[in-house]
Design brief:
It contains 21 helices and 24 strands. With 809 residues, the chain is of the alpha+beta class. It folds into 5 domains: 32 residues, no CATH class; 151 residues, GAF domain (Beta-Lactamase); 121 residues, Beta-Lactamase (2-Layer Sandwich); 153 residues, GAF domain (Beta-Lactamase, 2-Layer Sandwich); 152 residues, 2-Layer Sandwich (Heat Shock Protein 90), CATH 3.30.565. It has a 6-stranded antiparallel sheet with strand order 3-2-1-6-5-4, with helices on both faces. Strands 9-8-7-12-11-10 form a 6-stranded antiparallel sheet, sandwiched between helices. A 5-stranded antiparallel sheet has the order 14-13-17-16-15. Helix 7 packs antiparallel against helix 11. The termini are far apart.
């Protein structure tokens, strides 16, 4: 035996060993190595298989535990293997492989204690091996007792460690006393790590799956909420489809069988949207609004103003609406109030035909849907208000536009037919009428005459004109007599009249007549017609009264214009007669006056002998007054020519300096007689002008003559110059001045400054008017600058080259 052992332990390189011995030793070593390799390969395969199970079935923890237990028992040469998890103060068996019984008392849970090998491994967080457990009664009292009962001796337990804490234990046992080797202990630690991986994978997978479920649910809720908001945003006016979509979405997301939305009106809850409700119960709901109270879900919800959850309506002692349970098949119910600005406006309710409570998350979600329902209702309300207001504004704008067009027509044209036709057209359009007409009241015949119509056949117009309407007769006459709007809602229900019968025959059923009044005097009537029965609204009546007022203005304007045309024609004829008379009279006066002045001059020259001194003074006075009278006649004749358009300019070259000197020579004696200082100031080298020199001299003579006439002391000055292709001439005096308010009026015909001193100077008041006309005919202008008490300055601005129209060269 010893030899054999020596041979077995001899080195294959021993020089004394025989070749056969060397081969035997190498064969044994190769066999041993092959066995270790096969064992390692088997362990690796088992470990890989366990990892595959874990990776492929992360939720099937039991399968992973079973695979680990089987591999541990097989590869560690144990009779059985168990995997145990820690559950507070207890250990729970989760996997077992082998013929031994798992627990002596049955069940799978037992107390965590250090008296058990598995308990010791968990508490101490280390690997524990006992070679003969039945013999360790003092160290492992509970464990040794269990070993004797179950019939095993060697026990090896390895804790399952995660983050420094023992979450379980893997345990292998043998029925004989044969401790496990270090290699087997290491292998069991590997299996323990795999068990922890399986547990951790399952925990993480469950956590991820739960989180994913939460996220999916949240996404579903968010998507549903978003979809509802889209429907709300796209359907402002269509409230019904929005609420139907909303309650359907709420029921689907919250796993409810049906849902309803109620609107609180007049303290009653009316159904306005539903989903999943049986037809019979839906009809019942529509016909039976719900009051506040605890007997119904919606009544309780609006009563309390908060979410209400009824676990089972069939057994709820306060619930009395048995139709919901019987017809609606509703058991578990949820109601959430609809609140707008702290005011209850309704409720949304969900129900299940089974008894299953709604979760808090679902209650919160329904609260969100309730807010969205409020948004939808509010949007629809605001949209309706905006649409109604927009319609009112559009109609008002249309009415104002029509009134503006009519007013413009009234102000821009005096063609009565055109204005009245426009008025009746707008009146029919605004009042939604099929046709209309305007009658003008003829005071001479005391009857209404048709002046304008719309959508009236020639036959009907002819028949209407064939029946004169007097005050008090028919609708038109009644509105005129009463001076207020009169209407007939149904023409078929009034006493018969030929005009009514004609309208009925034409399909007319309703009539409205509005009087046209001017200072409470009837000037006509506006009438509109409809082919449907029904009264005209007060708004339409008021609007047509505005059209009636404009019609009255148009008619009155036409009458006034006709009167003005007649008066103007008469005045024009009278003016022509006057001008002709003035021309004739001027001619008739000038002829004898010229003869008188001629004879006076002959007498003065002694043609008929020497006259006594006294007679000479009389003849001189006759000559002076005759010349003055001739000047007046010439002035009146000029005005007559101006008015008749016969006043013409004769253009030629002239010199300002020469013209001023001529005027000075003609008026200097007058200034000297009043001891006035008379001076001229004309710029040297002025160009020649082109104009009517005699007429311009006439203007200058008039201005200088007036200056001398009205100035009692001081001076009179004539100035002349040029500026920008124009002559600038002024005549200044130190007389009494002209009031500011008279500066424009003194250029009017026959106007003089109203004062005693002015009146005493005499004159026709035509000189400045003629002067203004002559200057303006040259293309210039004349004006006065004056300060009362400090004199006046008349200024002329005259183009060097006259731009006169109608002048002769």
């Amino acid at each position: 035996m010893g030899r054999a052992c020596a041979v077995m332990t001899a080195s294959p390189t021993d020089d004394n060993a025989s070749p056969e011995h060397r081969i035997q030793v190498l064969t044994n070593e190769l066999s041993h190595t092959r066995g270790e390799l096969m064992e390692a390969r088997e362990q690796q395969a088992a470990t890989a298989e366990i990892l595959r199970v874990i990776s492929r079935s992360p939720m099937d923890l039991q399968r992973a535990f079973a695979e680990i237990a089987a591999s541990a028992a097989r590869l560690c040469d144990a009779n059985d293997a168990t995997i145990i998890q820690v559950n507070g103060d207890f250990l729970r068996l989760v996997a077992h492989h082998g013929p031994l019984a798992s627990l002596p008392l049955g069940g799978n849970t037992f107390q965590l204690t250090r008296g058990l090998v598995t308990g010791r491994a968990v508490v101490d967080r280390r690997t524990v091996q006992v070679a003969d457990l039945p013999a360790e009664t003092d160290e492992f009292p509970e464990g040794s007792d269990m070993a004797r009962r179950l019939g095993f001796h060697t026990n090896l337990a390895v804790p399952l460690m995660r983050a420094g804490e023992a979450i379980g234990v893997i345990n292998i046992r043998r029925t004989e006393v044969r401790p496990f080797t270090d290699r087997q202990i290491s292998l069991l630690n590997i299996f323990a790590d795999q068990a922890v991986i399986a547990i951790e994978n399952t925990r993480l997978f469950e956590k991820v799956q739960a989180r994913t479920c939460e996220l999916q649910q949240a996404l579903e809720y968010q998507t549903a909420s978003s979809d509802v908001l889209k429907v709300i945003s796209r359907s402002d006016a269509e409230l019904g489809p929005v609420l139907d979509t909303l309650v359907e979405t709420a029921a689907r997301i919250c796993r409810a069988d049906c849902g309803l939305i109620f609107r609180l009106q007049d303290d009653l809850c009316h159904t306005i949207a539903s989903f999943g409700i049986p037809a019979e119960y839906k009809d019942f709901q529509l016909c039976n609004p719900i009051t506040r109270g605890r007997g119904t879900l919606v009544g309780r919800t609006v009563l309390e103003g908060r979410p209400v959850h009824i676990e089972d309506a069939a057994v709820d002692p306060e619930y009395t609406r048995i139709e919901a349970v019987q017809l609606g098949r509703q058991r578990t119910m949820l109601g959430v109030p609809l609140v707008r600005d702290d005011a209850l406006i309704g409720a949304i309710t969900l129900a299940r035909s089974r008894v299953e409570s709604f979760t808090q998350q679902q209650i919160d979600l329904v609260t969100t849907f309730a807010d969205q329902a409020v948004i939808a209702i509010e949007n629809a309300r605001l949209f309706e208000e905006v649409r109604a207001r927009t319609w009112e504004l559009a109609r008002s704008l249309e009415e104002l536009k029509a009134l503006g067009e009519v007013g413009q027509a009234v102000n821009s044209t005096l063609k009565l037919e055109k204005v009245l036709a426009m008025i009746v057209a707008h009146a029919c359009e605004i009042s939604d009428s099929g046709g209309g007409a305007i009658y003008v009241f003829d005071h001479a015949r005391s009857a209404f005459v048709l002046e304008a119509s719309r959508n009236m056949s020639e036959e009907l117009i002819s028949m209407v004109r064939g029946h004169p309407i007097h005050l008090g007769e028919t609708l038109v006459g009644q509105c005129g007599a009463r001076r207020e709007a009169v209407q007939i809602a149904d023409l078929a229900k009034v006493p018969p009249h030929p005009l009514f019968e004609m309208h009925l025959k034409a399909g007319v059923r309703a009539l409205l007549a509005v009087p046209l009044l001017h200072q409470d005097e009837v000037v006509g009537a506006l009438i509109v017609r409809r082919k449907r029965v029904g009264a005209f609204t007060p708004q339409i009546v008021n609007l047509l009264q505005s059209f009636a007022s404009q019609s009255a203005i148009a008619i009155q304007n036409a009458r006034l214009f006709q009167e003005i045309e007649d008066k103007s024609r008469q005045l024009e004829i009278a003016s022509q007669h006057k001008s002709q008379f003035v021309a004739n009279m001027s001619h008739e006066l000038r002829t004898p006056l010229a003869a008188m002045l001629g004879y006076a001059e002959l007498l003065s020259d002694g043609m008929f002998g020497e006259l006594p001194e006294k007679s000479i003074r009389i003849v001189e006075r006759v000559q002076a007054n005759g010349k003055h009278l001739l000047g007046l006649i010439n002035t009146v004749l000029d005005i007559s020519k101006i008015e008749s358009g016969q006043f013409k300019l004769s253009l030629s070259e002239y010199s300002i300096d020469s013209m001023v000197q001529t005027v000075r020579m003609a008026t200097e004696s007058l200034a000297s007689a009043k001891k006035l200082f008379f001076k001229t100031n004309v710029v040297k080298g002025l160009p020649y002008g082109w104009g009517d020199e005699p007429r311009l001299t006439q203007v200058l003579l008039n201005l200088v003559g007036n200056a001398i006439k009205f100035t009692e002391a001081g001076e009179v000055c004539i100035s002349g110059g040029a500026k920008d292709d124009s002559f600038v001439i002024s005549v200044s005096d130190t007389g009494p001045g002209i009031p500011y308010e008279e500066r424009e009026r003194i250029f009017d015909k026959f106007h003089q400054v109203d004062s005693t001193s002015t009146r005493a100077k005499g004159g026709t008041g035509l000189g400045l008017a003629i002067a203004k006309e002559i200057i303006e005919m040259h293309g210039g202008r004349i004006w006065v600058e004056s300060i009362v008490g400090r004199g006046s300055t008349f200024r002329l601005e005259l183009p060097v080259r006259a731009r006169a129209s109608g002048a002769t060269a």
